[in-house]
Amino acid sequence: MARYNQASQSFDMESSPQPAETAMRTSVQTLCVAVLCLMASPVAGSRYRVDAIRDVIGERSNRVIATAINNSGQLTGSAVSEQGGIVYSFFWDGVNTAQLPDFQGGKSGTIARDLNDSGQITGETRSLAGRHAFLWDDGVLKDLTGSGHYDGEGINSSGDVVISSAIGEAYVWSSQTGLRSLPDLQPGGFTLGRAINDLGVVVGLSEAGGGGFSAVAWVGGSIRDLGRPANFTRSEANAINNLGDVVGESQTAVSGSIHRATLWANGDIVDLGELPGVQDYSLAYDINDDRQIVGYSVGEPLGSLGRRATLWDDGQLLDLNNLIDPNSGWLLYHADGINNRGEIIGFGRSPRGTDEGFLLTPVPEPSSLTLLAVFVGGIAMRLFCWRP
Question: What digits encode the pLDDT tens for the residues 11-25?
Answer without folding.
Answer: 233 334 455 455 455
